[in-house]
Amino acid sequence: MTKVMVIGGGPAGSVAATLLAQRGMDVRLFERDVFPRYHVGESVSPSCRAIIDYAGAHDKIEARGYTVKEGLLLRWGTERDWTVDWSRTFGPAVRSWQVDRADFDKVLLDHAADQGAEVIQGARVRRVHFADSRACAAEWEYKGTTATEEFDFLVDASGRAGVISVQHLRNRKPHDVFRNVAIWGYYRGGALLPDTPGGGINVISSPEGWYWVIPLRDDIYSVGFVTLQSRFLERKPGFESPEKMFHALVAESATVSELVANGTFIGPVRVEQDFSYVADRFCGPGYFMAGDAACFLDPLLSTGVHLALYSGLLAAASITATVNGDVGESEARGFYEALYRNSYTRLFTMVSAVYRQYRGRAGYFWLAQHLVRDASAKRPGAAFASITAGLSDLVDASSAGGTAPIHELIAAAHTAEVRAAGNVPAADSTQAPMRMDANDLYDAATGLYLVTHPTLGISRATAPTESARGLAFTR
Question: What global pTM score does this model have?
Answer without folding.
Answer: 0.86
